[in-house]
Amino acid sequence: MYSEWASLSAQITANSCGAQCFSVLNKFPASAGREVVVSVVRQLGTNLGITQNAEPSHLVKDEEVKWCMDVICFGLSLPLQEHETIKDCVNVYCEWLTALHPQPRISVPKPICEDANLYARQIINHFHNLFVPRQGESADTIKRQAVLCHRVLRTLQQTAQISQLMDRQTWDTLLLFLLAINEILLAPPTVKDDVGDQLCERVLSVLFEVWLLACVRSFPSPSMWKTLQESCSMWRHRVALVDQWNRVNLALTSRLLEFSYGPAFPQLKNADEDGQLIPVGMSNDCVAQTWYRFLRMIGNPTAFCSPHIISKSSHFVQWALTHEKGAETHQHPCLQLLPQIFLNAMKGISSQVDAFLALPLTSMGAGAELAVARPKCNSILHVFHEWLFEAAHIGGDTWRQNRKKQACEASKRPSSMIMEHRKGSISLSQPNSLNDPASLPPTLTIDKYESGRAEAIGTLCKIFCAKKTGEEILPVYLARFYMALQQCLKITESKECDETLASILLHSGDLFRLDLDGINVLLPGFIAALEIVLPDKDLKLKTQSMVFNRTELRRSAINILLSIMVLPLHYQALPIRDLSSETSEKMFTFIQLKSRLMNILMNALQVETDAQNTHMLLGGLLLCVQDAVTFEETDMGGGSGATHMHNSGGAQHHEANLLSSACSERSASLVSTGTASLGAQTTATMGAGSGSIRDTASAHDYPSLTISDDMSFEFGQELEGVTTYDNAHALFVRATYLVCHRLISSWKTDLNVSLAALELLSGLARLHIRETDTLVKIYEASQNLTIISSDALECKRAVKWICDYICYQCSRPPPAHSKDLHSTIVAAFQCTAAWLMQHPYLLQDKDCLQTVLEVVELGISGTKSQSKSGDIPKFKDEKELKPASMRVRDAAENLLTIILEQVGYFPSECGPESISSLLDELALMKHCNSMVPAAAASTEQAIAKFKYFVTENSTILALLEEPLGNDQDPQPTVTLLIRGPFGRHAWTMQLRHLPRSKSGIKYHAINPGRPIPMNDISQRPECEQKNFPDGVDKVQPCVADYSIPTIDQIREQYGSASIRELEAILENQSIHEKLAWAEADNSVDSLSHSQECVPPLVCQEFHAARLFLSHFGFLTFETRNPHNPAESLGTPPQRPLIVLDTKSTAFAADLDRLDKLSARTHDTVYVFYVKTGQTSAQQIIGNMVEETSLSYDPHFAGMLQTLGWPVLVADHSGWTGFAHNSWSLKGTPEEQQMQQMQQLQQLKSNVPSELNYNGSQRVLYWADVSSEIAFVVPTTWNLRYNSDTSDGGSLSNSDQIGSSNVWARCESDTGTGAAKSKPRNLSLELDTGTGRTQKDPVPPTRRKGNVTKPTLLAQAPAKIFLVWLESYEDYLNFPLEDLLAYTRTGEELHSLQQPRAADCHVIFVHSLMSGLLRVKLQGPPGRMSFATPLVDGMVLSRRVVGNLVRQTALNISRRRRLDNDNYQPPHVRRRLKVQDIVQKYKMDLSEAELLAHLFQRAI
Known about the structure:
This protein starts with 8 loop residues before the first helix and ends in a 5-residue tail after the last helix. Helix 31 (728-745) runs antiparallel to helix 32, helix 33 (790-810) packs antiparallel against helix 34 (819-838) and helix 44 (1194-1203) packs across helix 49 (1441-1458).
């Protein structure tokens, strides 16, 4: 850089030798000179104003001043015993230097004021004598010298800062003086506590700070810069040199970044004093020039690793020659600090790289966000590559080979005396000893420099991890980087982790997700490194002095692991070359690394203790299993039977068993052997059995949500040696066992880890694992042989573990019960439901069914009926309801309903879009004959045909007594619409005396005709009728006989008038009877006329509702006294049956609102496509226009198809992403009109069909038994829709909020006069009251609230965005706030808290050049924000992206609900709505009135 410029070293040498600091008093004896100095300086010091008032100087001529200065020059060189005299000399010169100040002191002589620069240069040169080290002085004396030196340095620095008079010559003199004193103090080998050691840091800081001032006032010449560089090379054994160099470089870099990248670039935060190093007036060009020159000031930092280079100065040679025992120059004790100096230098360079990348100086490893406007990697490498690459190779194979080569060349030359060009110094060159490591002290061996090497390779990793999307890095840099990494990643036989390995792992989290050309050649090395760090609980460290956070190290290693997990199945049989070998002997394929990766993952999960790391590993585990399962489903084909593959040659190769928890080392050694044939005579069961478990939802006409890639033929050959354990089934078994075991043993006390584990188990339950041929024999107590598959055993074991987990959590002592604990229990119930839904055969197992139902009972009531197998069961009415909390009870009720209603039956004929019947009153009445015309019927008219009852205060029964039109056989028929907490169900019931199979047979015989009458009239014997027996008169009467009075006695008692009236009545009755008989004899129906007898007409009208309610036990009232208020039917909510008044006009609207309350949770994910560089919402929304569809990444449309099923909104009865048209029955006139409008709008739409899922006509939809999710791709239509509905519309009804209020938990009124319960949600014991002796259990209570009034949402539902990025860096500028306007569902209008950008969850997906996908998660900070299976930084294959994104979105929403205290489950919301309807429309009927109501026909 300065090769053609002359150095000023000679001038510095002259100063050091005292040529310019020589006084005439040196010609005289020392005692004489001392006396002169004492006399003169004492007089001059009295006029300075230190001890008395300052006076003007008496020196008025130049000669006088020069003579005094000659005396003072000699005084500064006096021995340190003359401390006071030297101090006076310093005081005089410091005062005289104020001549350069804007306001000189009064004591400054006039000649100096008139020519300040001339005299200042002489004073500065004279100061050199003060800094010359004195030999043999005591420590106290040296400290006094140091104090005076500090005074001089402070004065010089202050003068340089405030002086406006200094000319260029004075500046040069000052800089040369500072160089000279640094040379004299710092160039010799360090001696502890000498003056050089004490002043080292101070003289260097003054030199650099004054030099920076000179760059502004009088920029140093190239010769001056060259001299500075040469001088610094002689001081490199001083620690302070590198520290000050780093300090100045960072300050200059901070200013450089300000004007190079603008104010938006993150500012480098330095210490306050370091921020003031740069003078205010320094221009941008001056900053740039100064920065680069200072950067190159100390030369190549790798020279610190060569003690013979650092010690080649004449001072070290002199020490070596004068050493008692004889020593080499590089053996001086002060050089033992070289490893630390080298480390400091590398840290300084690393700090500058961090500044250019906008990384915090305290950042550890990956995870810190980089600035978008950061420079390219090539630009940074152009500046630092030489130093960093050389430092990264220190101690490596390449470095050792180069050293041997240099030693070999040097040995051919004789030892020689080398005259150093500078200052005529002599250094002995002995090549053999210089390059011989044995000649170095133990503290200077090359392994001692490993810390600096680790810093260098870590810095390189940070640079390459900063690569932007589409950025190209020069191949030469990539090659050198890969070579350095490969050598640093070499594992020793001791399997220890050294600093270099740790530094690489800490800073390489993004290496495998940046599309770096050829990065996969490092895959074997990184896997070997991960095998050192992750599988073992106690990390083996090479040296205990290593300082780093082990948790952060494991986290960085897990990040790397998550980025390479999918590579084996993605690249399959692609070979990986070894950089260190030119032959292909060590070459092996990606698929061979799969077992090692699986072992690392399993073993790491088994020993991990950090919650966040465990969370990441669980996400990676589900990714692996999902990827393997999907791969076998798609790429391997679905053929039945076992596919046996045989190898044609080679020795048998036994792969490491994946199920072993400690086989990573063995598998590593086996794979690294590099045998070409992976296995001989080893069979792999790829797809055994054709009866694989299918997703029940896929039984409908929905497309498969997977992407298939073709499998190469070579990959099939590579699979030959993989054992049966290395497949999806083995992963499933191992993952299930490991996660369940650790969930019970280690993770149960941590909320996030428990939730992640349960999410993983739920994900495993949904996988379609191919059944193996393994059968297990099970002998029951009856010795009956039962054979089941091993898969069923694994699933049964998993359910048992989850149930045990629930039991343990519920049984923990009261102090442990908290919101977090109950959240884990609720999540465990949801996980159990997922397993039972996907594996309904588990309920056929008696033990499994009993285990699950016991847990349900535990959740609902708080205790089991049988705590132990031998205990006497306690019946339900004998137990007191004390669930762990209301949330736990709700979750248990939900699981019980799923078991009874949905397991094995979902999806129903309605499809997965609805778990309720799609029939309502209007739809049923259209099929009844009484509704004419059917098309003109209204909902109110249809409701009038039904009778409405409420049972258990939670279920509405709508009874229709008319048979449907398609029923030709008149029977007592009742059609029911059952609206309960878990949906709406339709049933039709008939009362039959014969089964349906015999319903066509006539149950009465054909009329045989009347028999022929017999005309023979029989004679009736005449007989006298007697009222009493014949012998009655012979019986002697008794007193009782006279108790009944005779007629005569009555006549006497009551008079004859009463008797005559009675006789008249009897006579009239006799006459009427005779007339009736006569009329009957004359009638055609009389018995005297022959007439055929016909059967009566079949009854066409029945009181079917009464029959149904009676037969099903709803009318079995207990024996009561209706006149006793204490034994009345009770208040309506407590009655067995409540009648609803349907005459109110609002009843139909309330029923509709109840139907609009889904029995499942619903969520919405908004999908966006961001092209490179787009930062505005309008640009991103504009991407959904047909004109730009050709420029899409084709994988984006493929991903959309795997998220859900495309459905037409007009025909869809589930969640559509919008509250106004969800869960509505299609086919009504209003719906048909809306459908026509949408079809017209679709004709005008310019959105490509494969992307048109904005919700206007189509939407992507997915559902299971407990949740629904819609995927919406917003367009400009969404903004117009939101602006229309915000003014009113269908969502403006104040009562509509009842259907959307999913975030407020209320308490229903349990009856008039009932005591209100204490508000509670998470308490352990329910307030059941004391002294109650009711037979029925007391129902738990909920939070207070009025269910008759709509309440605002306490918290808005989570907003989840799925963003496809063409350029990964665009996630930093994603306009989240502006896009919220396009993502409204209609529920926001009734929320207390509007959605905020800070609360949104964003899943960024970036497509890599390899075809894989990189994931970036962004969300609000919190304990439960991020859910699995997706993890920030994970790399996915396209075949699983849709499934994992969907699961993550669902899990995020579930966690948000668990974390919300006021959230109500769907069935609780429906129950509260039913109770609301009861309060508004109940009829207070007595028992008699209720029975009478049943006999009344509906309108």
